[in-house]
Design brief:
With 142 residues, this protein is mostly helical. The chain contains eight helices and no strands.
């Protein structure tokens, strides 16, 4: 049996962490830095995305659960797919679990990655009218 001092503040909780079950203690130790460090271990894009999620004006516990869900996709879907989905979210300025979940479920990230690769592979054809930046630099110096 445990005895505690009574907290007379109305509508406030008094919790002794040592008396919590281990899984509750684990959750009570969550903080933004923990999730940012976890995301940074995956990639800079995921870190940026998690920072965006944590900057939302929701209850911290709700945001932490969203972060756990997003970061768990690194194991479920793979790091590369998560990174691509986070890139999409950053580009669209959409920072939430639902977005990442739908992108991965619908394989939208794969289409996005293919589109990025195709854009990188496209090169301008060689042509005498394509002058480059040096041509225009010389024009400005006259």
């Amino acid at each position: 049996m445990a005895f505690h001092l009574r907290d007379r503040k109305p509508y406030k909780y008094t919790t002794v962490k040592e008396h919590l079950p281990s899984h509750h203690r684990f959750v009570s130790e969550w903080n933004p830095e923990k999730f940012i460090n976890w995301a940074a271990g995956i990639s800079p894009e995921v870190k940026t995305y998690i920072e965006g999620v944590l900057s939302q004006k929701n209850y911290p516990e709700t945001l932490y659960r969203a972060c756990v869900g997003i970061l768990s996709f690194a194991k479920k879907a793979g790091k590369e797919r998560l990174v691509t989905a986070c890139r999409m979210g950053i580009r669209m300025e959409t920072y939430n679990y639902g977005f990442i979940s739908k992108v991965l479920a619908n394989n939208t990230d794969k289409l996005w990655a293919e589109g990025e690769q195709a854009a990188n592979d496209r090169k301008l054809p060689g042509h005498e009218n394509l002058r480059g930046s040096d041509y225009y630099k010389d024009m400005c110096n006259d």
